[in-house]
């Protein structure tokens, strides 16, 4: 169990990148969702003991890792958003180097991990010549070297092709059966069938935390579908929160986020998880506008 209590991170004079976050993270996969600048990366860096909170506590099974960072580092696997490789090392040498840093003395484990991320045929190639997706896979492998109890991955599928993303989603799901996995992503399909909990951040604050099914359930009365004539599309959609617009021979079919039927003929629609999260974001924005 990882617990965040009133965690704050302030930069400069008064830029609150993370603002009074309280969150409990049990075993399983939790996904951090939010726009760029919402505070996701800063929060993950503090949990990974790379950055120090301005205030609050981060507890791993009751141990304050702000005061005792080694308690987390010994049990942590971390893949940052910007992951680089050493230009003169092969993939195998790169893994051997990180294994030495982490105290891993099992050469067979290195080979197994390279196979797991489909790099075993490229083990002797210089990593500097890898594609972006291959470098990302190598980063995933190094994060798993020490069989971590806590795995933190920031935008893990960036640069991966669809097949690689599918493989990585399955891998994270399996790890989440027995470990704590925290990831951030902008690709909702990556978490739809993988994350047991979603934590939504906005302007440094945690605005919601629940299961994917619960987000969809709450959005069921908030998403509507209606087809409008093509020539009337711009006029009728003005001022509405349009989630999707699909043009076809009969006109334009709109999916709209709104608390009540937004247009004549609009019918309730079953929301996708992505639409549910967008509806949540619109609701947060409206509350902020009212508060201002």
Automatic annotation (TrEMBL):
The lineage of its organism: Bacteria, Pseudomonadati, Pseudomonadota, Betaproteobacteria, Burkholderiales. Residues 2-228 form the ABC transporter domain. It holds the Pfam family ABC_tran. Keywords: ATP-binding, Cell membrane, Membrane, Nucleotide-binding, Transport. GO terms for molecular function: ATP binding; ATP hydrolysis activity. This is ATP-binding cassette domain-containing protein. InterPro entries: AAA+_ATPase (IPR003593), ABC_transporter-like_ATP-bd (IPR003439), ABC_transporter-like_CS (IPR017871), P-loop_NTPase (IPR027417). Belongs to the ABC transporter superfamily. SUPFAM superfamilies: P-loop containing nucleoside triphosphate hydrolases (SSF52540). CDD domains: ABC_drug_resistance_like. It comes from the Bacteria.
